[in-house]
Write a structure and sequence with these properties.
Layout (H helix, E strand, L loop, with lengths): L1 H12 L6 H17 L11 E10 L6 E5 L1 H15 L2 E5 L4 E3 L2 E9 L3 E10 L2 E12 L25 H11 L8 E4 L3 H12 L4 E4 L7 H4 L31 H14 L4 E2 L2 E9 L4 E8 L2 E5 L3 E4 L21 E4 L13 E5 L3 H12 L3 E6 L4 E4 H9 L5 H5 L4 H9 L6 H15 L1 H9 L13 H8 L3 E4 L2 H7 L3 E4 L3 E5 L2 E4 L4 E3 L2 E4 L7 H7 L2 H7 L32 E3 L4 H19 L17
Parallel strand pairs: 1-7, 8-9, 8-14, 9-10, 14-25, 15-24, 16-17, 16-24, 17-20, 18-19
Antiparallel strand pairs: 1-2, 3-5, 4-5, 5-6, 6-7, 11-12, 12-13, 21-22, 22-23
Length: 613
């Protein structure tokens, strides 16, 4: 305790006591602490703007929850502060002020955890306040000064080497010993979460139908690479090397995930399919039937995580005549690449990321390719995304300016979704101006463009619906030039043996039809693995109730069902892009560890289910 006090005092002594933003924040924290320790803790509400925001990631609510306005904040404080017992609010580094807004990094403690916060003050009141759980006080990760020694010094006739211990774990876990947590889905999300759980000593198995970690990426179409830049895509604990390419090719991603699984000592069962799962209410555990290398086994984990990505089962439209088509047809997730289709008439139904990538690869392999764009798409050039949208947080320049991945993730998370559009709209207005000639060429070609229903661009569209955009890495020029043929504002009416007929009556010859038509909600996997009743019980995954296309209201303020408790006990959903999987896996892992250790986890603010899929 003395060391901690000394460290805290040292940290405080390094901060300027006369820097006015520091003074303002310190006074605000003192008032917050006083209110929490008084007989009327809800008085802390008056430290917030009338329409202020408090976003909590597990530390107060054991949930991922945004409170909007004083009434919601007051209610949360009233229900949580007595058992959370927040203390030791400290300014972590010098606060900054710009355009009348003070930004401050803060640390705090609760009864069971250490936390970190990000505060924005305007005129002395909180505009936004982010609180996050960093670690469980009694169960910290064994890292830095707590790291294991590895070698066992001294004499011991029963000594086990590291390899022998790993081999014993691999042969017993799932057989004579049961995992506490089972993760279904061995992509970057499941692997990253498993790495965090291992550091927290939570016995975990990851299962995936494919043989090796990374095969999900290796099996995609040949030209696929990450569209997000490297600084956005790091995995937990092990960042990519400094010579790693900006946009990682799919097979390189696959190799990294295989290596990561090995060195992070993850219990990964490849070639393993989940046949079915059901929750045993009496024993408070899951009964999961899996087939591993042709052998059926029963696992009994206490917690079940579906980490099948942010998408569910592929959406394949039912179109009259599909059964008589004499050519080849498949969903974009099954597309092998363009090499086999030289000289073929190819139809790609869809206008988003996969559709563009597949069309480009087909054109490169001298196919005759037509994109059928049913509705408008948001397009942003990759260079413009990096320069005008991501660059301040995720770029080489940001790293040179002292930005870390953790700090970038926290800064991004500190903006409540309700006001995120007002941060993004100016950036996308700058993009539209910078690339106006590019957009005009696309429009002249007949392409249907949008910047989201409110002009907030890529990330809000991604959060609301997980579709409807393309990060341009070359295909848009082919569309604008007519190299990729385009039919927009129409769909396929019906299919003939050697052609497709569009809704405007146009008939196009076809040897190949690719359905780049996206995926369903993640709870579709719950229906397939567990039951439709459970899928309906948890409801739709993703989206936040923005009342925009494919994201129906009412407003919820957080992504539905992601990384937090659901209405099915002990069932969790984990997914998203690499950035989200990295950041939010921390909070999911802490929730799981707390339950394993028997820590009370009263969940505040569970949203009712409004939509089933």
């Amino acid at each position: 305790m003395e060391i901690l006090m000394t460290q805290s005092a040292t940290k405080q002594s390094m901060l300027s006591t006369t820097h006015q933003p520091n003074v303002t924040v310190t006074q605000w924290l003192e008032k917050l602490s006083s209110a929490f320790h008084s007989n009327t803790p809800s008085d802390a509400t008056f430290l917030f703007e009338e329409d202020g925001y408090w976003r909590d990631l597990v530390s107060f609510t054991w949930n991922i929850k945004t409170l909007e306005g004083r009434t919601a904040i007051r209610n949360m404080i009233h229900e949580t502060v007595s058992h959370v017992r927040p203390t030791n609010w400290q300014l972590d580094k010098d606060a900054t002020e710009k355009d009348g807004v003070i930004d401050a990094w803060i640390t705090f403690d609760t009864a069971v955890a250490k936390g970190r916060a990000y505060l924005r003050l305007r005129d002395g009141l909180a505009w936004t306040f982010l609180t996050t759980m960093v670690e469980l006080t009694d169960y910290p990760e064994k890292r830095n000064k707590r790291r294991p020694k590895g070698a066992e010094h001294g004499a011991n006739k029963n000594r086990q080497t590291w390899l022998e211990k790993r081999q014993h774990e691999e042969t017993t876990l799932g057989y004579s010993e049961q995992p506490y947590c089972l993760i279904i889905g061995g992509g970057q999300g499941g692997i990253g979460l498993a790495a965090r759980l291992r550091q927290l000593e939570v016995p975990t198995i990851v299962i995936d139908a494919l043989p090796k970690p990374g095969d999900t990426w290796r099996n995609r179409y040949k030209s696929l690479s990450l569209h997000d830049p490297i600084w956005y895509d790091h995995m937990p604990y092990l960042p990519f090397p400094e010579n790693w390419p900006v946009f990682t090719p799919k097979d390189k991603v696959g190799d990294w995930l295989e290596m990561y699984t090995k060195v992070m000592e993850i219990n990964y069962w490849g070639s393993t399919r989940c046949k079915n799962a059901q929750f045993d209410e009496e024993k408070q555990e899951w009964v999961v039937s899996v087939e591993r290398d042709g052998v059926t086994l029963t696992l009994r984990p206490k917690q079940l995580v579906l980490a099948t990505g942010m998408s569910g089962i592929p959406n394949i439209p039912e179109i009259s005549g599909m059964d008589v088509f004499e050519g080849e047809q498949h969903h974009s997730s099954k597309h092998p690449g363009g090499e086999a289709y030289k000289g073929k008439k190819c139809i790609v139904l869809g206008g988003n990321n996969s559709a563009h990538d597949i069309c480009c690869a087909l054109w490169e392999n001298e196919a005759d390719v037509t994109m059928i764009q049913r509705s408008s798409t948001h397009i942003i050039k990759s260079d413009s995304l990096m320069e005008l949208v991501l660059g301040g947080l995720y770029s080489e320049e940001a790293v040179e300016n002292g930005m870390t991945t953790y700090k970038a993730d926290m800064t991004f998370a500190s903006i409540p979704f309700q006001i995120m559009p007002q941060f993004h709209i100016p950036a996308y207005q700058a993009v539209a101006e910078k690339d106006r000639n590019f957009y005009q060429r696309l429009t002249d070609a007949g392409f249907l463009l949008d910047f989201g229903e409110d002009g907030s661009g890529l990330f809000m569209k991604y959060l609301r619906r997980g579709s409807g955009y393309y990060i341009d890495v070359g295909a848009s020029d082919l569309v604008a030039n007519g190299d990729i043929k385009l039919k927009s504002g129409v769909s396929i009416e019906h299919i003939k043996p050697k052609s497709v007929v569009l809704t405007d009556g146009t008939e196009l010859e076809a040897d190949l039809i690719v359905y780049a038509t996206g995926f369903g909600s993640m709870n579709g996997w719950a229906a397939k693995i567990i039951s439709q009743d459970v899928a309906d019980k948890v409801g739709k995954c993703w989206g936040m109730g923005s009342n925009t296309a494919k994201d129906p209201g009412p407003w919820e303020g957080e992504l539905r069902n992601m990384w937090k408790p659901t209405h099915q006990e002990a069932l969790w959903f984990h997914g998203g892009n690499l950035h989200q999987s990295r950041h939010y896996s921390q909070y999911l892992s802490l929730q799981l560890k707390a339950r394993m250790e028997g820590i009370e986890t009263p969940v505040y603010g569970m949203e009712p289910v409004h939509h089933l899929s």
